[in-house]
Specification:
With 391 residues, the chain is of the alpha/beta class. It has 13 helices and 14 strands. Strands 5-4-3-6-9 form a five-stranded mixed beta sheet, with helices on both faces. A five-stranded mixed beta sheet has the order 12-11-10-13-14, with helices on both faces. The chain is globular. It starts with 14 loop residues before the first helix and ends with a helix. The relative contact order is 0.12.
Length: 391
Amino acid sequence: MVTGNTASSLPEVNDSTTLRILEAVRTQQAASRADLARLLNLAPSTVSQKVSELLDEGLLEEHGQATTRAGRPPRVLKAPDSRTCYAAVDLGTSHARYGYSDVNGRFFFVIERAIDTKKGPSQIVEEIVSSIRQDLEDSDIPLRLAGLCLSVPAPVDAEKGWVEQGANLPRWSRFPLRTELTEALGVPALVINDANALAIGEHLQHPRLRHSIAVKIGRGIGTGIVIDSHPYNGATGASGDISHTRVANTDGAVPCACGNMGCLETLASAQALLRQYQEQGGDATSIAEFVRLAQESDPLATTLARQAGRHLGKILASVVSFFNPDAVFLGGLISTIEPFVAAVRSSLYDRCHPLVTRDLIIEQASLGADAGITGAAHMIRRYVEEMATSR
């Protein structure tokens, strides 16, 4: 992991140094070797050696000269301007969002398609592969696929590249997703949890943050954890899966897909809110309609959203107190309801120590529907670069 360093000591040079240099140039935080040495607190000789290696690998390019008031003008470093692209697929239970990004993380184009994960993993892999091939063929710009990252709404064994016992994807357990995608497309592939994709995508929008949490409120409730700008998966890929934390007493509680009663998912997920609204006489027929009503101050929808926010905040308080992050980001359609976000924020302030919440950012995720593909594209790009620099 990359950790913070004081100005009085230079960090140990390791594999992450090269990746930090690439990220600094790509995000335009640094445009020269001198900029990199100052920004990353590295010795100029170390920067010069690493940059030379990256230039030889074709992962960086030099262009022109930067303006300077005195001395020899430095050469400007840039990421290669090529047609290389990285595919990111953010899979839901009923839709998939496809994004194709360049080496700088900018998307050439994004497409959303309906999908039915109940068909099983084998058929969905075929659909994803077919869609990617068709998208690249239809593109106005000739693109070369360098890698693919698939994010899924279930716990993931990132090393093996498969789903581990996901309640939302019951027939997917241990199907070799990563292997199948790699063999079909002939490029490196990753499989990650969708909440982690959201967390990384949102974390990238705040370069000064080191640690953050992102909560995705959808059919379930997942939490992505970022430590020193790296996603944390846990021992079995189940880190952050707070959906099945028990909130309510079992008396009158709704059964959860996990087999228990009174889980957070049954009280604060998007599906739970729609169900509660309908049970209490509301006529919304979809989550989007429920959200619209809540945004328009429908009394019942607003009350239910606020209650859900309090339930989520109650569980998150323990996570935030233990982890002490810089920020908590709320994603998913439900997070666009301001009373929901306000209730989460209020609950955290009420239940956490003031030192934990003193500088804590608590807000709706800024990237909306693109957060997942942004994080997934970053992960596969970083993975491909790690492979290149380790040769």
